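Researcher: Next sequence.
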Amino acid sequence: MRILKLVIWDLDETILTGIFEEGDEEINPTASKVMRLLNERGILQALATQNPPDVIPAANEKFGWSELFVQVEADLGPKAKKVRRILDALGINPLDTAFVDEDPFERGSISAQIAEITTCSIADLEAYLEGDSSIVTEEARRRPQMYREQQSRTRGEENTSEYDDFLRSCNIQITVRPYLPGDAMRAEELLTRTHRMNLGVLPVDEAVARLSRPGEHHVVVAEMKDIYGDMGRCGIVHLTPDGGGEAIIESLAISCRTRARGLSLAMLVGLLSHSDAQFERYRCRYVFNGSNRPLRMLLMGAGFKPQPGTDEVVLDSDQLESMELPDWVQIDYQLACG
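Model: Next structure:
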């Protein structure tokens, strides 16, 4: 497990001490404690249970879970299929996921069928959380709410005949501004948690250390919001000038939430178009991390050209100026205070 983003729970004889359909409604107190800790840290929680789907509304009402689980899969089929549907629906890698079941057989079954997922008991997960000293940002705390807002967007899309009209109705706004000291924790979180849209050249510790060297580096942050909510800081780019009009992109990370709205390209162009990030040419190394092929596709879509015989890609700034962005997103640029 690289970093815990999602916990998928079993219901009967895991969260509950017995079986809900048989009238057992006592919650395992340790499970209740762990679920609360996960929610406070913004770690997503989902439910995969071998119960008829009509059991879930009653359980949600009984235990107040309607705002807890961002995805629920309930049927009498194999549990592994439900776990895979949850991972696919949320777009989360098994490497960043824990499956919790008190039955060792079920844990072994999931491990055998879904490579790289972590399976554990409630006690295992509790011990992990107690040993985890990661600082939790405001964006992290709001992550479950953001996923629920995204599900509202999806339902809105399904009810809109013209998708572009739907997007225009969302009033999507991206604000691009200089990096501030208060962004440090969120920047570290973006560089650590983002795998698919992360340049991944520098170790995270080194990348974060360089952010605090004013004058040497240019760092720009992008925030995003729409009518469904404020998604906070979703993008960061860190550039080092070479003194001759060219800049090296040291770090680049864009939250996958932008992909769901088709805004990854707009955010990249917005970051590089800020006055603190404007150079005649951009150069960066792309290092495949096992997950970040979408970032390479994004770089190519923005006009970056691979340099033969190297892992570098290069972009001339005039290509950014000619880039057409969607008319349903507004990009606002803020300058440094003072």
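Model: DSSP finds 15 helices and 13 strands in the chain. The radius of gyration is 22 Å.
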